[in-house]
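Narrative of activities, Objective 1.

The group set out to show that a structural description can be obtained from nothing but a protein's sequence at a throughput compatible with the screening campaign. Below is one input-output pair from the validation batch, recorded exactly as produced.
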Amino acid sequence: MTESKQKNRKAANVAAGAAYAPQVNGSLPLYRDPRPVHSATHADAAVIVAPTDFGFAAGAPMIQLTVDEFERASLDYPILFFGDDRQPYVVTGLEAERNLFVSEGRYQAGAYIPAYLRRYPFVFARDEGSERLILCLDHASGRVAGKAEDGAVALFDSGEATELTLQALRFCENYESAQARTRLLIALLEELELFEVKRVHYTAPDATDPSLLVEYSTVDRTRFEALPNEQFLRLREAGALPAIHAQIASQAKWDALAAVSRTT
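Output recorded for this entry:
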């Protein structure tokens, strides 16, 4: 079997499911109507490739992040760990339903765009019937079109996945691998008791008193710097040090974000 056919078959296996109409589960922020991609149901489907169209994220003040992105993302955003599972996020706005980095559908020039946004409108989701990951497409996206529309790229050609679909599959696979590395980092930080809880308050431009913006976890710098050599070496051997330093350094971005929010 040729490499091309192997990739097409792999794509079909991951995205397959039309025969038993799988249902996807799990939390997928920003995705409103994700449907499993399959040659039978998406034979005439296409996607308008628009790398500058980020209007779908204009109302997202927080975006999920993976550990692989910490170093670059820390240059633009505060990075925090949120919720019971301590999923990492970048903070993109200080008000509900407002992303300060998106204007008229375009992302701020030069700012890092999280992989969570770059994979859109594709995503991996879990099939409730088998718990396997399947490639899905958000049919609520304005990028989803018919293959006959101008600028649209088909998902399948004669029943075979096109390069667009294969690229989406590879991107989502890489994203899931990064998420697995992220979970390992979180587990290690929890084991070494390096998390501390913080609260951020923010006074909106039209308000007189500050209100609680978010309660989150961050790496406790004091505890981190006081780690015994054995535990510090564990972090280094796990390749966790760059991400930890980046997350700590990113806390300086809260003030910059507040300054932007007050002037827009």
